[in-house]
Amino acid sequence: MRSIAQVLIVGAVCLFSTPAFAQGTSGQTDTPDPSAQQLRRDLEILKEQLRQMQEKIRQQEEAIEKLSAPVAPPVAAPVPAPPAAGDREQLKQEVREEVMRDLQPKLAAATKPFPSQFNPAIGLILDTAFSYRDHDQANFDFRAAELGLSASIDPFARGYAIISGSPDGLEVEEAAIVTTSLPYNLTVKGGRFFADFGRLSKFHDHDLPFVNRPVVLDRFVGGESRADGAEVSYLLPIEQYVTLTAGMYNKIGAENDRIDDTVPRGLGQFTYLGRAATFINVSDEHSIDVGVSYAYTPQVVIEQKAERHLAGIDITYRYVPLSEAGYRGLVWGTEVLWNSEKRPVGGFPTEPTVPPPTDFERRNAWGLYSYLEARLTRRFYPGFLFDYAQALDPGVSDTKAYSPYLTFWPSEFQRLRLQYTYLDSPGAHENQFFLQWTAILGSHAHGFHDR
Amino acid sequence: MKHFALVLLSVVLMLLESHAGADAKTRVVATIPDLADMARNIGGDLLEIKSLATGVEDIHAVPMKPSFVTLLNRADIVLLVGLEAEHAFLPGLLEAARNPKILPSAPAYIDCSVYVVPLEVPTRIDRALGDVHPMGNPHINLDPVAGKDMARAIADGLIRNYPEHEATFKKNLAAYLATLDVAIARWQREATPLRGVKFVSYHPDMLYFAQRFGMEPAGTIEIRPGVDPTPGHIVALEERMRREGIKLVVRERHYPAGLAETIAQRTGAKLVELPVMVGGVPEARDYMSFIDYNMRTMLKVVQGG
Questions:
Q1: Do the Cβ atoms of A323 and B92 come within 8 Å?
Q2: Among B15, B57, B95, beta carbon nearest to A238
Q3: Quick one: closest CA in B to A413, which residue?
Q4: Predicted ipTM?
Q5: Residue A97 lies inside a defined structural domain of this protein
Q6: pLDDT reported for residue A64
Q7: What is the pLDDT of residues B219-237, one digit of tens each?
Q8: Which of A181, A241, A318 has the most B C-beta neighbours within 10 Å, making it the best mutation to test the interface with B?
């Protein structure tokens, strides 16, 4: 055995060394050839490896000789007793450790960190529609592409941002920090976010159950309840679900143009909010969410520094048969809003060249929306929306709208919606048709407040 | 006004007191009744256990109720199946519950899938594959052997949080596992007629059950997990069933009956309706009777009863 191995190794060395030597001699010049030097180094390495292998073979042969040496006849060995419980545990532990040692390189490779590992979850929502209006004719409306980012910040807070690109440009819709570990059931939110006013004013446009935001929310709140500010929310530590929210903001409403977000102001010119919300579990299948909201702005500068009140009540009834929740159900959602502020008679001028109005009077207005949506299958959700809103300005008549719609979900991540609206508003009595197409790419989360 | 304030204060104090009074036991909230039953066997009287789902729901579509928020707000422990089975409701509820004790990074967040080797781990993560679960098929509770792993994860989680009760939890776990072992051996014997039986189910809920008892999943009514079928998919599925002699359709009870019945009728297959959780039918009172019910019902249908 030993001699065969030696012969093989010596043969291998000869085979390798012959061409190396030949090259070395033929290439001998005054200036050493670099490739020859490399070959010499390789030869040295090879020789060293040969020496190590011979040593290893010698050691193995010694070990074999020891094992094959005649040994004293074995004394009748007793049948080993089954290991005691403690031994079994130790054996299991040893086996476990051995297996883990074998697996560890693969596990380490699988869990190898990479630079973007802590990047936030990213999702993109595409929202587009084809619209036809009697007066405005037809158009393909690119509504928005919303990029959503979210991640934990540290053990005490999380953060998220919604950046929206639309025909109006690129805009930060939300970018907020939310605490996660405050005591006493408190949560604090700061930055730009949707203020906790009502229900659907906190929904992004693409999340609404119908194509367009109800008139009363557009008019009274100013679209989405976007606000730059801070909010504290408290969950009462009782069995009944009750939350209380208090907030302070520059203003509420993405399209609320009464107040400029960028101009510093006195404390009396901020908007202050209070909200209480609860939930009534009528049975396993029937439930009602109720909330009341109130936003108060002590001084609205462009309205002769008069105060503004905006109050609302929202009620959402849900029928969700537990065993059929994926494809059956009914939602009835209603919000009633009341607004009181000083408005110029005839409204604010739309032309900047016209001098600012001087004739103001306090105007109380109210409005509501109510919709009923059925879930017939996992794919088809028909619904009907009714809108009513008084004008904010005195002397302008009310607006009503009636909108049957049908939502079709090819999957959870894609939605088509067909809606007809009959709009009855001052100066516009028209039919409107919409076909909306919305898709979700990437990360998506089922948020509690998007229910 | 003063009287009103006093009355209000008294009511608030009473409510807070009633809340504090319930502190004697460790409050455990399980996402599904299977975990609640296992925890009851392991924790006994030390735990006060509630389940969010009643058992009749689709685990991917448990409605997020505000009443769940208050339960989780007061929980000491949360038990979940894991593998993102509860993706549609648990993360949202935890975010609203304001209870840092049970957030995913906390020791009281007990993921019961940690010892289970998942099946159907996707090699590609792409929504074109449907609502895929990146960590694998999460319907582990239908396999009683995985059930043992889940019970072990519960016991380990409880010990991690309450080491002072380690002996009790270990003793109860051992007794529970021993009972399960006896039942598993019986189910294995009983399952002989199921071996090699091919079936179609609405959603891949039955994968672990099938693997355990030698059945062969041969397709789903859904075109992809979480995506309802198209007419073309149904036609192709029925053709395949006829071609391959697939004679069994499983409808998980939270999916619509009509389509599964129609497919079974058109292909001459038998239809079996099964719960996917404890509480899914009145007979599935606990984890043992749940597996037992599924086994008996499946056998009855396969054997032509």
A1: no
A2: B15
A3: B127
A4: 0.88
A5: no
A6: 67
A7: 999 999 999 999 999 999 9
A8: A241
A18 lies in some domain: no
- Residues of chain A neighbouring B67 (CB-CB closer than 8 A): 241, 279, 281
Chains A, B: CB pairs < 8 Å: 102
Which structural domain, as residue segments, surrounds residue A178? 122-450
The pTM (predicted TM-score) of the whole model is: 0.82
So what's the pLDDT on residue A23?
41
Asked if A377 lies within 8 A of B228 by C-beta distance, the reply is: yes
Whether chain B has a CB inside 8 Å of the CB on A62: the answer is: no
CA distance B259 to chain A (A): 12
What local confidence, expressed as pLDDT, does residue A101 receive?
85
Q: For residue A351, what is the domain's CATH number?
A: 2.40.160.10
Per-residue confidence at A11, pLDDT binned at 50, 70, 90? very low
Instruction: Say yes or no for a CB contact (<8 Å) between B69 and A235.
Output: yes
Kindly report, residue by residue over A304-342, the tens digit of the pLDDT.
899 999 999 999 999 999 999 989 999 999 999 999 999
Q: Cβ A325–B63 below 8 Å, yes or no? A: yes
Whether A399 is in a domain gets the answer yes
Is A107 contained in some domain?
no
Q: Given CA atoms B33, B39, B41, B45 in this order, what sign does their dihedral have?
A: negative
In this complex, is the C-beta atom of A322 within 8 Å of any C-beta atom belonging to chain B?
A: yes
Number of domains in chain A: 1
Write down the pLDDT at residue A16. 44
Choosing among B50, B52, B59, B70, which should be mutated to test the A contact, i.e. which has the most A CBs within 10 A? B70
- Which amino acid is located at A311 in the chain? A
